[in-house]
Write a structure and sequence with these properties.
The longest helix has 29 residues, at about 10-35. The protein has about 400 residues and is an alpha/beta fold. It is about 40% helix and about 15% strand. Among the domains are: about 60-225, no CATH class; about 295-380, no CATH class. α3 (about 95-105) links the parallel β2 (about 85) and β3 (about 110). Mean pLDDT is about 75; it is low at about 1-10 and about 35-40. The chain has helices at about 10-35, 60-65, 95-105, 210-215, 240, 245-265, 285-295, 300-320, 325-340, 340-350, 355-380, and strands spanning about 70-75, 85, 110, 125, 135, 150, 160, 170-175, 175-185, 185-190, 225. The radius of gyration is 48 Å and the shape is elongated.
Length: about 400
């Protein structure tokens, strides 16, 4: 029984498998890394209401909605329907800040945690001294909404305010209070010494949940406007608006200095100065200099090569051949046209390095005789033409 010959598909299949193996391993590595890392987290800037990071405020938004509040995330000013506005980062300009004050005077409640905002009272000092954050007791607080809030634990960057006349302060520290409520028309501005009590990893500490509920969602159906900073690309400020005045002044100085420098370097006083020209070396002197250099170094082989290449190009040009024609074809063409011996011509064009200067001179003489013979033959067999170039 005969065995059929292999079809050759086995080696081809093995080659394809070896080629695809690195790609399969790479894809498998990416899948394993994705499974280990898990789904992408929803992180963002600090105090971002959509961020689940430790410094985000997503837990606050979910808690307020769980209490029945209607939370609207917006980077603009609160509308007339909003009851409470939360401003954790004050990046408003003066005009929009005045509009926010007008909204408060119409009966709104503004809760802000930005101690640098002009909407907050004067800062009396830090709310936490030392490296360990300690709790602050509510103390003598006249705000009935905070009856269930006994203690807060502000962060290391929190401050204490100087309570203005007619305001209400709670959670007192040396020289001030961490929370100040200031009446503004028919509304109220509640200034917190810092926003740390409302971030994700601190919201469940102490009485922070009660504080958030009392200030932001005192009853079901409260409409809360979360005024978050605009995301990158959403703001209305241009690059020039973000540049400080001192930077603009520095750029103006650089522009003036550049113009002055360009004017100073471009203007030339006095007569035109003649620039030195390169020395022109006649061709004959160049040939003599190269020859002397070759003779001084004893480079007879290089000199012989120059002679052979020159006569080969000349013969090829006279016989209508390309200058790159090999010596064998040039020798055959010269022998066919002039009747000279092909082997002698080929030896002249391809002979070895001369043994001495006399041999180099004989090579030069033979090359010149061959050149003259070719020139004389082409001149004798050139077609005769009249004065107008007609045959």
């Amino acid at each position: 029984m005969s065995v059929p010959a292999p079809s050759g598909r086995g080696p081809e299949r093995g080659e394809r498998l070896r080629t695809a193996l690195p790609i399969v391993l790479l894809v498998a590595g990416i899948v394993v890394a994705a499974l280990v890392a898990g789904p992408p987290g929803q992180s963002g800037p600090p105090l971002d209401p959509a961020s689940t990071a430790a410094d985000g405020t997503r837990a606050l938004v979910d808690s307020l909605r769980g209490l029945g509040a209607e939370v609207e995330l917006d980077s603009s000013l609160p509308g007339a329907q909003a009851d409470v506005a939360l401003l954790l980062t004050d990046n408003l300009d003066d005009d929009r800040r005045e509009e926010l004050r007008a909204w408060v005077r119409d009966g709104g409640v503004l809760v802000t945690g930005d101690s640098f905002s002009p909407l907050t009272p004067e800062v009396a000092g830090p709310a936490v001294t030392g490296f360990v954050s300690t709790g602050l007791e509510r103390g003598d607080c006249a705000l009935a909404a905070l009856d269930d809030v006994d203690e807060v634990e502000p962060g290391q960057s929190s401050v204490a305010y100087e309570a203005p006349t007619g305001s209400t302060g709670c959670f007192g520290v040396d020289g001030g209070t961490w929370l100040v409520a200031v009446e503004e028309g028919a509304g109220t501005i509640v200034a917190l010494g810092g926003p740390e009590v409302l971030v994700n990893d601190r919201l469940a500490a102490a009485d922070h949940p009660q504080l958030a509920a009392a200030l932001l969602a005192p009853r079901a159906g409260t409409r809360v406007a979360f005024l978050r900073p605009p995301r990158p690309g959403e703001g209305e400020a241009t690059l020039s608006d973000l540049l400080p005045d001192r930077v603009r002044f520095a750029l103006l100085q650089l522009a003036v200095a550049f113009v002055v420098l360009a004017w100073w370097r471009a203007r030339r006083l006095g007569r035109v100065v003649a620039e030195p020209q390169p020395v022109e070396l006649p061709g004959s002197e160049l040939v003599t200099a190269v020859g002397n250099l070759l003779q001084h170094t004893g480079a007879r082989g290089r000199a012989a090569g120059v002679l052979r290449d020159d006569v080969r190009r000349t013969l090829a040009e006279r016989l209508g051949l390309p200058q790159t024609t090999p010596p064998e074809q040039v020798a055959a063409a010269v022998a066919a046209r002039t009747g000279t011996d092909r082997d002698e011509t080929l030896a002249l064009l391809t002979s070895t390095e001369p043994v001495d200067d006399a041999a180099l001179v004989r090579l030069a003489q033979a090359a010149e005789r061959l050149r003259l013979t070719a020139l004389r033959h082409t001149a004798e067999h050139a077609p005769q033409t009249d004065a107008r170039g007609h045959p």
